[in-house]
Amino acid sequence: MVSSFSPSSSSIRRKSKKTRICLDSLPEDLLVEISSCTGASSLSAVRNLRVVSKSFRRICDERYVFYRLSLKEIDYPPWHQNSEYFFERCRNSGNPEALYRKGFMNYFRDNLKHEGLKYLAEAAEKGNREANYVYGLILICLGDKTKQKGLKILSSVIKPLMSTTMEELVELRYKIKKIRDSVLWPNNPVMERLKTVYVREKCECDCKTRMLLVRNHGWHRYGDDTDMNISSACEFCLLHHEVELFLR
């Protein structure tokens, strides 16, 4: 007869006490890092983290956590006062995405060009890809001394995305189109002004670049052929193509 061993409930409790980790006992800088990493990946996840303990609720209100928060789950512009207060906290914490959205709204919807460019420039400096794209486009359209700076900024965004496939660039276009369509109405005066002042110089490019632009004439490209070798394409035409897509 084979005997079976069943551990007592007291021994199980002792074992569980030995392996249980109290999150509140962790160093505060580690808790801040956990909270900020969670917020950078998902806003809903950090909301859940706030209810874990009082310590996490307090830490989730830290400036660094708000700085890293991902806002992709929230539509813009905010329609409720609480949402506006939340975005204001994010901006005051230097959140790049919040700065980008505020800059876009100020420049295009509110016709506050100076303030809008200031926010867009700050978001771009902090590495926000959408902000660099839009900021570069605006500088190109304005021309004169800002044009070369805009081309350089836009190139820093486009070239890495187009080094292998078009998928990442199409995704970036979609994100920008989403906020553009949500805040701009037809014949928006600021957009119409950019169309008026924008000047594209003539450029002799090869056949490959022209064919690429034909296949990618819209914000979203269709078809299975997603690969492209940018080394053989005319960068000047590629950058101006992005400007023309945005101004449509």
TrEMBL record:
Ranges where the At2g35280-like TPR domain occurs: 78-179
Domain F-box: from-to ranges: 23-64
InterPro entries: At1g67623-like, At2g35280_TPR_dom, F-box-like_dom_sf, F-box_dom, TPR-like_helical_dom_sf
Protein name (record): Uncharacterized protein
